[in-house]
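Contributing new records

If you add data, match the layout below exactly. Sequence lines come first and carry their own label; structure lines follow with theirs. Keep one chain per record. Anything else will be rejected by the validation script.
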Amino acid sequence: MEPVSLLAGHVAGKFIDRMAKSFRLNVIERWSKHRSQQFFEQFCREVELELAGGKSDKLELMLDQMLENETTTEFLFDSYRRVSLSRSKTVGPRVIGIISARLALQQRELTEVEETILDAAEQLYDDELIKFSEFCCEHRHRATNEKEKDVILSNDGILRIKWNSEQIDSNWNRDSDVSLEPLNLSDCYGDWAAKMQSLGILKTDLTEKRWNYEEDSERHIDQKGTVREISWWVLTFDKYFDFAEIINRVKPK
């Protein structure tokens, strides 16, 4: 091999080594450290809250006992894996920290709802999680108003938010047809909503109501007819209200 080629290979090798070191320090270690710190600090805070502000030695004892339990350590390792892969830098790791602390303290397995919450905390960015929390809290509040007809919290725990409605009168000639396609949540609210839909936290629904009316000359209704009202709804569920509240609690102030 020519000396020039050897020199070029040596320089390229040194450059690759330097870039690899810089990448490890400035990308992998920097952001994995930040995420793990958010997770662990929130985890410890939650344990401390459960101990009602107990002394530090009591907290240390509790943590030691957790870390000696094989089932708990296996679950915490899976939580840490989620944190490492989290798209969210701050909110997601903190949410995972709270859910992990609850399970570790109660020595139980994840519920299906908690698993979905952890999936969302891992897959969505900080701003997307915050938008979901704001969406949920706003519409929960609106549903408490008895006069509110477009946001309804039913007895079975479904929060229904009307996005739009169209009325079709059998005696009217419309310029265009009404599409009965389901809502595209990305178009309505943004990518965060579509991601929540893929996890089952949000859903869409389409309902139809019909009523008849009679001829009424005083109201200038010349003939009887039928009205169809098509409504498009966004649905979420009370089992995820705690998730929204956790996000609101841990989001950067």
